[in-house]
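One such shown below:

_____
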Amino acid sequence: MTSKHRRNWPWHVLTGLILVVISLGLWYSTSLISYEWRWNRVPQYFAYQHEESQRAADYGTVSAISDSGDKARVTLTAEGGDEQVLEVDRDSLQVSQGDDVSEGDQIGVTRHWAAGPLLWGLWTTLWISVVSGAFGLLIGLFTGLCRLSSNPTLRDLSTVYVELVRGTPLLVQIFIFYFFIGTVLNLSREFAGVAALALFTGAYVGEIVRAGVQSIARGQNEAARSLGLTGPQSMRHVILPQAFKRVLPPLAGQFISLVKDTSLVSVIAITELTKSGREAITTSFSTFEIWFCVAALYLVINLPLSQIASRLERRLGKSD
């Protein structure tokens, strides 16, 4: 064991003790309100066995029943002579050979695994985050360059956009997009939610890009121009690559915030992860368990993003 490790191990022990104390405090707090933990109710909100009813299409008779593993193959003969063959789970079979059936009678059910509401909410959060993040990055890059433009109109318009978006709450912007712009242009709630998140993210990314470009020494641009590169070529091949290395940490932080900000689109009836959690609570009455699972799913998304950004930052740092 190195001397550095010998010096640090007491601090790691202290960290573990603090986490244990926090956990015990949480357990004690729930015991004071006599909360009954029901973790057994949670798995069905991730995946469950969906039952699909198999029903008779017409009046007739059960003419044959044959076993096929854990399935039962039921043949129904209608009054007109037409046959209907249904395959159901054997333990759900509700008729016997020779029984008369009416139109709509349930013969049995077929079961298959289906994604629960929390997984569907996770998927919705993921695709909204990816789409709005991609558009937000493009908008932010364009806005940041406009803030540095020598054209006064581009500078003024980009400044108005950034200050307007950063100066108003995201929740208000979502409402405006959905209830005003969305109504006028007949936009879907998903489009309105993604557009609001993309424009909100773009404003912050624009400021990050502007600060990153301005942090590069002027001599870099002058050297590129002296080598015969045009202004756009100098920006693309010399300035932006260096600026990207410097703005990577705040960009990663912004995209992590975007993942969490997607929870706000639930106000316009988009069933993302947070809204799925609220709906699960209304049927399971397992408030703490569901919210802990929702928080864990957000961590599952954001922790890899942080790790990827850190590795990319270290790799780019070595290439300097």
User: Anything to note?
Assistant: The beta strands are 47-55, 60-68, 71-78, 83-89, 100-101, 106-115.
